[in-house]
Fold:
Amino acid sequence: LLDVALDPDFANNRTVYLSYSEERGGGAATSVGRGRLDENGRALSNFEVIFRQEPAASGRNHYGSRLVFA
Structure:
């Protein structure tokens, strides 16, 4: 896990964004996904990947990241 950010309208839509390192095909890459946090804050539902770095880095190396809404 590299970063966690709440949607600017989190109070209404409960959407959480995550950036993370994902192993792929013998390498690693940064990915970003989003999901909806349940009412008691214990689980994400409807999680979907919305960005995958291409190409993946060879080996287990990956880039860091920060999530920012502008």
Notes: The chain has a mean pLDDT of 93.
